């Protein structure tokens, strides 16, 4: 599967394959210091940092300028160059933490859904490098689920999305102790995919999905048992969502 139709599920596979789903259930509700808005306006040298001639590893002040530039510009050329620079700097462990503390992960993550395919790929590369840091994985969960939910609403993307290879730890997102906001998202993901499969007619004639694929996990017995167990969840909204899904399992 190629072209725009396949771009989304490839992106999902890359993110999931990066190990970003390993510890999403540890997501905390409190905002970190680094989630503050970037108030520093970039100097004229901010764009100079993206022109490919600057070989040094960026410091915190330069990274902040770069993030502000990425957040404030709509120029696709500048966005792509800024993401390349951030991705290269995110390969260094010290910068992985700095970018998180500056609130950079959501800024980069928002570029996943950009209409420009090259920008999407550069954003994924930056997130892939950032996901090496365990603390960053917590925030990158959120970005992965947003992407997956968007893709799961599109029947044309369903088959490719279900072929994406996913670590078995993904099923830990359906555990009862997971934060409500995450549970509702993964339950909606399951619901959307089932609805798309019905539209596409794949429930009657299922294509071959390999072990380790998203389809293999979501339609396995372990996932079914986890969802059924949530019928006793203490939150009424989660329980209501589960009751709408159980008849379809």
Automatic annotation (TrEMBL):
Pfam family, one: Arm_2
Main location: endoplasmic reticulum
The Armadillo repeat-containing domain, residue ranges: 58-142
Any one of the GO CC terms: endoplasmic reticulum membrane
Leader sequence segment: none
Location(s), subcellular: Endoplasmic reticulum membrane; Mitochondrion outer membrane
Residues that span the membrane, as ranges: 6-25
Domain of life: Eukaryota
Membrane topology: Single-pass membrane protein
Annotated InterPro entries: ARM-like, ARM-rpt_dom, ARM-type_fold, Armcx_regulator
Swiss-Prot/TrEMBL keywords: Endoplasmic reticulum, Growth regulation, Membrane, Mitochondrion, Mitochondrion outer membrane, Phosphoprotein, Transmembrane, Transmembrane helix
PANTHER family found in the cross-reference section: ARMADILLO REPEAT CONTAINING PROTEIN, ARMADILLO REPEAT-CONTAINING PROTEIN 10
Purpose of the protein: May play a role in cell survival and cell growth. May suppress the transcriptional activity of p53/TP53.
Subunit structure: Interacts with the DNA-binding domain of p53/TP53.
Protein name per UniProt: Armadillo repeat-containing protein 10
Organism: Theropithecus gelada
Highest classification ranks of the organism: Eukaryota, Metazoa, Chordata, Craniata, Vertebrata
